[in-house]
Amino acid sequence: CKERGFDAIGYDVSPIALLASSAKTTTYDKPALLQEAKVLLKRKFAKPVQQDVPAIMKRSFSHYALDDVLFFRSHIAAIDDPTVRDFFLLALASASLRSSWVFKDGSVLKIQKRNVAPLRVMLRRVVYGMIKDLSKVAFKPCITKVELADARRLPLPDGSISAVITSPPYLNQ
Q: Which stretches of the chain score pLDDT less than 50?
């Protein structure tokens, strides 16, 4: 919709889908993202405290990768601009999955210890790839918004929407 200039509202019950939709429909200041990327990716590592880390996270990553995820997450959380913060949070989520022992097997996620790329390397690749992708698309002026909601109970007045596009919740299909 943003590429065509159509106003759009998106709803989802998944917070990560909401983050992705929001980040992908935001208009960014590319030089500001590049500057923030340089600062973030040049940060000297300091071992984070692994307090209140869910057991599934500990099983999904090597302790080195988990330390990196927590380290970068804390620095991304400190970014003042919420749109820039969400951009880097989405990049971290993508890079984290690629640096984890988690893999998709049909309609389930499984964990298997194996060699994976270091998180910092993957994060750098994902961040600069996302910034490069911004140059490939031209957004037209429009209003987009995404909200956390169940499609069965949308907070919309009758007749206020002219078209509906759905994506059924079928994992990996």
A: 172-173
